[in-house]
Recover the amino acids of this structure.
């Protein structure tokens, strides 16, 4: 029955339908049914009574964020650097979720019986760039599948130390928690998840820094930051994976070296995102420019960030 209802309704996963059945929200010919594995009866009428959305626990807060596109199913936005995506210990409010709740208000249909946005993917606090957020169950299910299957176009710009050799290629290595520092991720020999990052160098400056375009074949926590650091090319300004002054900094002129070493966050930007609309199937594509602080750094180094 759960498979039948999920296939027939659309926009709900089988696990969500199973949950609704077990919660007593499904009727057959007006009678309550609570066994998801029950065989479907020909000629019967099945009724699903989803819960009325309730207010999400995070509070709505009026926080401005650039919107690139919005309809009834989703929002595409350009996340500013410094904005945390989801409330967590140490960042209980002032997050993108708080801002989305205020922006959408009562127009948010609700996900899982709760009036909240569906976070399909995340960007680190100090990573800027394009994100898509689901507003409906249908959008959340379809976009989550697209991200899991990498059925989309997604590219980042990263300013890293040194000159990767070759200038284009792939970095592969399982990623898991760093055994010596649980706040960090690392390339590990066991217990990690497979991770693959494709990169190509777009430009270089003074033989010491490179502007890379990176594409993810997998989506692990801190993946680009970890892979580039492990390859000996940590991202400029990375507070977690850049622990010492890189050797490449020694050959720079003092002005450029100072700008790079003083950059206060990882110079990483989600520049491009393309995907099929979860309801219509139409191709959507979005591209965002690097924020002003990173662009100023690129300009000072005569690198193109567009």
């Amino acid at each position: 029955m759960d498979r039948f209802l999920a296939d027939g309704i659309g926009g709900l996963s089988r696990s969500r339908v199973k949950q609704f059945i077990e919660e007593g929200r499904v009727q057959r010919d007006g009678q309550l049914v609570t066994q998801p594995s029950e065989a479907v009866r020909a000629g019967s009428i099945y009724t699903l009574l989803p819960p009325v959305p309730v207010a999400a626990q995070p509070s709505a807060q009026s926080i401005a964020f650039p919107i690139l596109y919005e309809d009834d199913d989703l929002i595409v936005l350009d996340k500013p650097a410094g904005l945390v995506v989801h409330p967590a210990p140490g960042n209980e409010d002032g997050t993108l979720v708080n801002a989305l709740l205020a922006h959408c208000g009562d127009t948010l249909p609700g996900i899982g019986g709760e009036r909240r946005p569906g976070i399909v993917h995340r960007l680190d606090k100090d990573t800027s760039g394009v994100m898509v957020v689901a507003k409906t169950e249908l959008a959340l299910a379809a976009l989550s599948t697209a991200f899991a299957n990498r059925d989309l176009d997604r590219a980042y710009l990263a300013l890293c130390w040194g000159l990767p050799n070759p200038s284009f290629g792939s970095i592969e290595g399982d990623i898991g928690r760093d055994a010596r520092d649980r706040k960090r991720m690392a390339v590990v020999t066991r217990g990690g998840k497979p991770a693959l990052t494709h990169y190509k160098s777009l430009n270089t400056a003074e033989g010491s820094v490179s502007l890379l375009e990176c594409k993810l074949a997998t989506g692990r926590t801190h993946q680009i930051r970890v892979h580039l650091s492990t390859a000996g090319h940590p991202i400029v300004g990375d507070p977690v994976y850049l622990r010492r002054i890189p050797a490449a900094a020694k050959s720079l002129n003092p002005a450029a070296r100072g700008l790079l070493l003083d950059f206060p966050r990882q110079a990483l930007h989600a520049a491009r995102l393309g995907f099929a609309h979860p309801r219509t199937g139409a191709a959507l594509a979005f591209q965002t420019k690097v924020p002003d602080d990173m662009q100023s750094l690129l300009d000072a180094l005569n690198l193109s960030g567009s």
